[in-house]
Amino acid sequence: MEQALALARQGEGRVSPNPAVGALLVRDGEVVGRGFHTYAQVKHAEILALEDAGEKARGATLYITLEPCSHQGRTPPCADALVKAGVARVVAAMEDPNPHVAGRGFRKLHDAGIAVEVASEYEDEAAQLNEAFLHSMRTGRPLVTLKAALTLDGKISAPEDNTGWITSERARAHVHEFRHNSDAILTGVGTVLADDCLLTDRTGKERSRPLLRIVADSTLRMPLDSRIARSVSGDLAIVTTSASPADRRRALEYRGVRVLVLDGPNGRTDLHQLLTWLAGQQYRSLMIESGSKLNWAAVEAGVVDKVMFYYAPKILGGLQSLPVVGGTGRLTRLDAIQLHRLKLHTIPPDEFAVEAYLEK
């Protein structure tokens, strides 16, 4: 199963909207077939493992990181192919939460006389590998992660000069791996105006589809000559309101920008509507990488599921330096937003990241 999980990881960033799956066929103590899924290759991991094994698949045991599918999608049901190939036993790390599968694959295999086991000791690891997919299947919306780089005293920018980076090149490389595994990234127009950012995946690794860059801009202040606007290639959307000028909308659309009018409270864009739209487009994960104001709006709206905060060994201090989450905030300690399942990622020599989940 550990080898199957290692195979599945080779699909990270290359599978969405599907899950990353690894499969290993073993007969008489020998590995006879291997496979892992990528969206571009179409075929599922177990089919690739069967093709790799050929006739040796008959009587073999399949180790797979997720329950084999039982429905017709882009490919025929994998459970049927396993039955036809004569596989004797299937050991899966977890059940598939997809309502089209959800135990049906196991039942189809069992009814055909194939022994089925769930290796529950690997379930947490398998679930973490496909966290966004599982969240999307269970909630109907993308997994939303708030990412920020900040000083030890919780600041993300200085009041005057913000030249340079808060964190090191090594920490930023960690961030880009995180971006690579995300389907979409959201920032606010204030960040675009201040940093002229690109928000691209710069790992150079293969993706199943381009990283969707999204800018929240209620009145369409984003300059048409900004780097992000000039680099459009079917991968940029702007979320705005009906108060934005119609001529600006047309100008952006003419340049290939997708403009979404999603009116929310207080003249702002509606983040809940954005998540609904992303879910309809089968985007499984959204990363928020923005300024203090939008960070608070997202947290207060209840759309953030987890945080990934990268800390540098620095202190800015002062009352004018912006905190990672601004806005009105909570007025009492008892009303503080709670986080749990906290995990530390060390980034040598002196940095670290905190990953944690918001209590809902």
Q: What can you see in these coordinates?
A:
- This protein has helices at residues 2-9, 45-53, 78-85, 104-111, 123-129, 131-139, 169-180, 189-195, 227-230, 246-254, 271-280, 292-301; strands at 22-27, 30-36, 61-64, 89-92, 115-118, 143-151, 155-157, 184-188, 212-216, 236-240, 258-261, 285-288, 306-312, 322-323, 339-347, 351-358.
- By secondary structure, it is an alpha/beta fold.
- It is 28% helix and 24% strand.
Gyration radius (Cα, Å) is 23 Å
Average pLDDT number: 94
The N- and C-terminal alpha carbons lie at a distance of 33 Å
Tell me the number of helical segments per DSSP (H or I, 4 or more residues long): 12
* Class by SSE composition: alpha/beta
Indicate the low-confidence ranges by residue numbers.
Answer: none
Number of strands: 16
Helix content: 25-40%
Large-scale geometry: elongated
**Strand-residue proportion:** 15-25%
Largest sheet: 9 strands, mixed
- Spell the H/E element sequence: HEEHEHEHEHHEEHEHEHEHEHEHEEEE
Strand order of the largest sheet: 11-10-9-8-12-6-13-16-15
